[in-house]
Design a protein that fits this description.
The chain has helices at residues 2-5, 18-28, 37-50, 55-90, 99-108. By secondary structure, it is mainly alpha-helical.
Length: 126
């Protein structure tokens, strides 16, 4: 329970520190395209089953899957740049090792399953 709330003493080593907290708040305060990839994958799976009888649909699904991968890669790149710049501005001297990967993995999770739970809603100031 305390970990879900994000209390510092209850967090594991992966989630501890001011830079990780800032990264979590940044990710939680913004809606990102990569946040919705799970929904797109569900559509893709449904379309793949429907595509067995429609070869044209199957070829569109390959393009759709490639588009999902490109969107995640580009959005991940921009998220990495934003997080590293923000941490260097607000927490100079703080280590940024592994921080971009941490933020990207958090952004890829569905909001309700993120641990620790989001403290901020999209659009909130942090």
């Amino acid at each position: 329970q305390a970990m879900r709330r994000g209390e510092e003493w209850a967090l594991g080593p992966r989630d501890r520190g001011p830079a990780k907290k800032l990264a979590r708040d940044y990710v939680d305060a913004h809606r990102r395209p990569m946040e919705f990839y799970m929904y797109a994958l569900i559509l893709l799976i449904v379309a793949l089953f429907a595509g067995r009888s429609h070869s044209a649909l199957a070829s569109y699904m390959q393009i759709f899957l490639l588009a999902i991968v490109v969107i995640i890669a580009v959005d991940g790149y921009f998220l990495r740049r934003s997080i590293l710049r923000l941490v260097n501005e607000r927490l100079p001297g703080e280590s940024t090792r592994g921080l971009a990967f941490y933020a990207i993995m958090r952004a890829l999770q569905l909001r309700r399953f993120r641990t620790p739970s989001p403290r901020l809603q999209p659009g909130d100031d942090f």
